[in-house]
Amino acid sequence: MGAEVRWASCNIFSTQDHAAAAIAKAKTATVFAWKGETLEEYWDCTEECLTWPGADGPDLIVDDGGDATLLIHKGKEAEEKFAKEGVLPDPASTNNPEFKCVLQILKQSIQKDPTKWTRMAANCKGVSEETTTGVHRLLDMAKKGELLFPAINVNDSVTKSKFDNVYGCRHSLPDGIMRATDVMIGGKRAWIGGFGDVGKGSCEALRACGARVTTGEIDPICALQAVMQGYDVAPIEKMLETADIFITTTGNFNIITAEHMAKMKNNAIVGNIGHFDNEIDMAGLEKYPGIKIENIKPQVDRYVFPDGHGVIVLASGRLLNLGCATGHPSFVMSCSFTNQTIAQLDLLDNWKKSNILKREGREEYKNEVYLLSKELDEKVARLHLPALGAELTVLSDEQADYIGVRKLGPYKPLTYRY
Ligand code: NAD
């Protein structure tokens, strides 16, 4: 489409080096990513990606997890504080290792250029955000009136969250566990924390491999759904001595604590496919008195407790499907990225008033979080059907009238949950 693209990874382990190298070689994007970055390198790459030669920054951002968006917002905030009070960000003011890196980067950049992030924020026309956790952050900023540009929530397109999160994880969770451990999943007991979209795909995958699956939920609706689908529902504490595989999918933190892991069976497998590295309390595990770490191979570590028993932790508690395997297959990502592309066109329309998407009665976006329309969501699905040899039934005029929809859609109200 003619955009000039700079690209960084959204996770220290998620780059496939051969794919990144091919992009760099083809010169279709400037690449700042490799597998196995340190946290410092990761945040440096994020800054480099956003630092545009000859411009104040990107016009548009495609984000996954919200880190690029976060850096710009925190950057502007820190520059305002520096301008008012002369105070630089202090990395020692936080114990969070990621946020330490953010503060370090901002401290350095403000000394070089005290309005870099303010100009970047003013230049940016919008962001489209890929994932559940990134969307939570955006909604939070919008609620507080702090969002600096319009945002499109790609995650909650039906053709994203009900496909990538469910079917993508259904594929890449067992892929990651198998590549990392070669363990027989059949017959094992697995506990999956969370029965949302990712949890549903994860439970289905492990059950299909023959595991006996229990899920943990806080939401009675999701818990009841799990039982109706034939899973046991129990908190992790009830499974510590029996389960062989523990997977977190909640988008929340401290789901598996060091104390939990201390009580697990020898060689229990512990992994996360939800977010960051704090669904499993890695910081607590690393500080556990007397803990020893045996590296088995890249992204597979055995943490040995003083009593001699150990747990096998995948991808250092980060997304194991990205760290230990190659993420979701490209077909399901094509659905997600079609949403991303349409979202980018939508933001471009909003900026240039060109109406490339031919949307009726569109209003100018404010600094809020928007969903793509149902028409566009259905379009994403429609575009993917031929590749799978699926043929739609066509409504007759009378049938369309009878159920009160237009013949070419949308076919469902916004409240429909799929
Ligand atoms: P979701 O909201 O549909 O599901 C999360 C579920 O966890 C909810 O049902 C919630 O009730 C439950 N939960 C929250 N706290 C809990 C707790 N303490 N104990 C038990 N259950 C708890 O979200 P989702 O779309 O399934 O996404 C979950 C996470 O996975 C997000 O962080 C998202 O960004 C991430 N994600 C990862 C991938 C990947 O490839 N690894 C893909 C998509 C989404």
What does this structure look like?
This protein is an alpha/beta fold and 418 residues long. The protein has helices spanning 17-26, 39-50, 67-85, 97-112, 116-123, 132-143, 158-161, 164-181, 197-208, 220-228, 258-262, 282-286, 320-323, 330-352, 374-384, 397-403, and strands spanning 6-8, 30-32, 60-63, 126-129, 151-153, 189-193, 212-216, 232-233, 245-248, 268-272, 292-297, 300-304, 310-314, 369-370. The strands form three sheets. Strands 8-7-6-9-10-13-12-11 form an eight-stranded mixed beta sheet. Strands 3-4-5-14 form a four-stranded parallel beta sheet, with helices on both faces. The longest helix has 23 residues, at 330-352. The two termini are 32 Å apart. It binds nicotinamide-adenine-dinucleotide. Nicotinamide-adenine-dinucleotide binds at residues 131-133, 161, 164-165, 168-169, 193-199, 216-219, 222, 249-252, 255, 273-275, 319, 321.
Would you tell me the structural class of the helices and strands?
alpha/beta
Oligomer: single chain
Sequence of secondary-structure elements: EHEHEHHHEHEHHEHEHEEHEHEEEHHEHH
How many strand elements? 14
Query: Which molecules are bound besides the chains?
Result: nicotinamide-adenine-dinucleotide
Spatial gap, N to C terminus: 32 Å
Unreliable residue stretches: none
What fraction of residues sit in β-strands? 5-15%
Order of strands, widest sheet: 8-7-6-9-10-13-12-11
**Mean pLDDT across every amino acid position:** 97
Radius of gyration: 23 Å
Helix content: 40-55%
Query: Total helix count?
Result: 16
The major beta sheet can be summarized as: 8 strands, mixed
* Shape type: globular
